[in-house]
Amino acid sequence: xxxxxxxxxxxxxxxxxxxxxxxxxxxxxxxxxLFFCENQLINNVDEDVYVDLYLSLEESxxxxxxxxxxxxAKEGEPIIKNEDEKTDDGFFYIPSQYFxxxxxxxxxxIRNKEASEVDKISEITDLxxxxxxxxxxxxxxxxxxHEKNRSDSISTGYMRFQKYVQNEIMYFKNYNxxxx
Length: 180
Known about the structure:
Elements: H1 5-8, H2 16-24, H3 30-38, H4 47-59, H5 61-75, E1 80-81, E2 92-93, H6 100-111, H7 117-130, H8 138-146, H9 151-178
Antiparallel strand pairs: 1-2
């Protein structure tokens, strides 16, 4: 089982689409999802859902992913096949909201790392590109990279980064509380 930083903050996954996105991006495995279910690390998971997921995985990975898509559709933002795609590569559109917890996960990894502010800002730059330029990050990303040679710019950007991470933690804690 992967040790995730969000769990150290007492956060849970809030939507099934987050798990689907994590599997599709190879950040977690199907075994991780079942472990999360068993250990109540997903909001509002019950034994029936766990059994359905387990049995669908016994059939195939395809069935497991279809079950996750079905659970996601019940939440209101379904994962859909991209109709504009002319190839048969099976590309599916995953709504961006399902990546928000993963963005926090990766930012927490950077925050909790033993490294200098400059090194962490450098990692944020790489992550910003990898996560497809999240709009909410611009406050700390652009400021910290505006003048890389100025230590006050990096420090201010890093402080904004820490504040953003704390705000995201509070968002998910509040979201988790509202779903109880």
